[in-house]
Amino acid sequence: MEDAGDAPEFLAIGHATRDLLPDGSWRLGGTVTFAALTAQRLGLRAAIVTSGPPEITAALRAALPDVALAIVPSPSATTYENIYQDGARRQYLRDRAAPLRPADIPAAWRAAPVVLLAPLAGEVAPELAAAFPSALVAATPQGWLRRWDAAGYITPGPLEDAHTLLPALRALILSRDDLAPPSSSAAALTAATDQIAAWASAVPLVVVTRGPAGALLHSATAIPEAFAGYPAREVDPTGAGDVFAAAFLCELHATGDARAAVDFANRVAALSVEHPGASGIPTRADVATRFPAP
Q: What digits encode the pLDDT tens for the residues 57-69?
């Protein structure tokens, strides 16, 4: 594990990934990658706890030189491949790094005020949610909602250990697609919406991202509140949901205002898609220039 150092202000926990490209090469991915870089660009000291082989360490150091790293050694990296056919995507898990447990968190980092649990392949132990009792703890649960067969083909599954996880969270941030892809039946899409509403009864804040359309906020009100997205010249939407999650938490931590945080995150996410990969993640000054606050 890397030398951890002092507690960060924003801690992201989950696997950084190898995302395979059609030509056989790969690029660095993973929610933690986009989220930590977003927090850093928004002015917070950011850190990542992940696992992987030396090539993941090297890629993270090159892409996020100002983000602290604690990396559990693993012979394999979590590796994804997306195969597109007739406009539909089939996603495969080709390899998986070592799981992450409470013992993998550097002792000093347990004082981080903002913590994002960001699993991609079930690697983050649900009991980690209770390991930061004084923090704003949130989760992007997509990696707990994935199941894969012997060939690595991924399909949605139930959220296990919800009784352990949900009571310890301040916020849950996800897309309905994490539960049911857009091509799902009407019944499956309705069931996904109902499931999100049920989680909203157990977690104070549930945010449902909707891409360019913005986001929904489930809070104390019975009916979720819709927040419109912002116009953008989309070049690459990769990681936009992860950028949104980090921006929402940064602003919620700064202001305590969930509604303002959703609107701010919509602005940050819109700017992030205008350039390839993570290169479009903006600073606060960038956001203020392009989308001045009301």
A: 999 999 999 999 9
Query: In this structure, which CATH number among 3.30.429.10, 2.30.38.10, 3.40.1190.20, 3.40.50.150 belongs to the domain 10-290?
Result: 3.40.1190.20
| Helix residue spans in 93-185 (DSSP H) | 162-165
**Of 43, 52, 63, nearest to 17 (Cα)?**
52
**Strands 136-139, 114-117: pairing kind:** parallel
3-state secondary structure of 200: helix
For the chain, what percent of residues have pLDDT higher than 90? Answer: 83
φ/ψ of residue 216, rounded to 5: -115, 140
* Burial classification of residue 262, based on how many CB atoms lie within 10 Å of its CB (0-12 exposed, 13-18 middle, 19 or more buried): buried
Contact 278, 63 (CB under 8 A): yes
Amino acid identity, position 10:
F
Cα–Cα distance between 28 and 26 in angstroms, integer? 7
